[in-house]
What we know:
The chain is α/β, with parallel strands linked by helices and 414 residues long. It has 14 helices and 12 strands.
Amino acid sequence: MTNINPYESTIKQLEKAANIINLDKATLEILSYPKRIVEVRFPVRLDSGEVKVFHGYRIQHNDARGPFKGGIRFHQAVDMNEVKALAFWMSMKCAVMNIPFGGGKGGVTVNPKGLSEAELESLSRAFIKAIAAVIGSRVDVPAPDVNTNPKIMDWMVDEYEKIVGHSEPAVITGKSLDHGGSEGRGIATSLGGKYVLDEAIGKVSLDSGTLKVAIQGLGNVGGNMFKLLGEDKKYQVVAVSDSRGGIVSGAGLDYDKVMGHKKETGSVVGFVGTKEITNEDLLELDVDILIPSALENQITKENVDKIKARLVLELANGPTAPEADEELHNRGVVVVPDILANGGGVTVSYFEWDQNLKNEHWFEKDVFSKLEEVMCSSFNDVWEISKKYRIDLRQAAYVLAIDRISLAMRESAK
Ligand code: NAD
């Protein structure tokens, strides 16, 4: 894989969309840089008694439409350029979803798998202490990301509330249900993606007969998508994969049985009656719909010619490399871009924030019906722009986002 600076890629995407709508130079310049960069070093006492200093970031890209919003990642590969790119994408995603948030992201350079539970809690609390001065329910609202989860969010809120001296659950979303989390957050990204997929197949006349689907990655997002599609007769999941490899069966795969096998053995590979394939093979299968749900840069200029799907739904962030993206568009393959397809997660985070601020707790059915409304209207807004400017859905999503953000920036400059 070529070593691409993710932040440079985001700037290219931004410039392309800015050209289409003749965005003024000042707005383009502002959107090209984060509004604020916070870089922290903070000490954590390990179980051995040793004090180790960690390196963390909170990048606040844009808040013209509302508080900065975005997750906190714990990973050994976290660096400034990655967090800057992720913060930029959050501004775009929140604007496409039309929810009242800007974009931000945080991260700590750490391999959390090497820490004990007590060390992980100390690290989480120490990081929040280090960035407490720049977050808040009306300022910047973090959430979980790679290797962080509801339990970690609960520790972070608890630490923040100790510092400010009052209850403020809306400062962080993605909390556990017992600590002010929202119903439906676990499945929100996949369900949001399913609503978008149902809309998309109607628009591109893919809605006759059963549609064959391949899903790469079976984590939170891919696993829940497998379940949802298995419950809908319009779709037949014929291939799935995890980090150890994939399986394919022309007769279709049963969610409960495949996941039961994965639970027992650690992988889908070896499931009875299926053929073993690699993750690369999965991408090239003769299916109607391909759903990358694992890693970035999976569809590249090396394999783009072999992709046979007619529609790609990007549940992962950044699974299609820019040069492959153009090629797919030229060949008439519809790519529903990440900042639209996987926006269901941040949308339910917004619902959580809203419930916390109002001291409410919504039923799951209400969360789902509001999510459907947001996803379908975002899809249709992007679709209309793609028709208006004769551009693909990714460019249309960027045009929509930049237009909405620049409008808010002009309003706030008045
Ligand atoms: P996760 O850690 O739960 O799952 C990732 C899965 O990817 C793992 O289960 C593993 O089976 C699979 N995997 C790892 N290496 C692989 C490989 N080489 N080939 C195929 N599969 C491999 O993560 P997740 O929360 O499901 O996130 C998946 C993607 O969706 C990421 O790109 C993430 O940024 C994006 N995303 C997640 C959310 C969310 O709400 N969780 C929201 C928006 C976007």
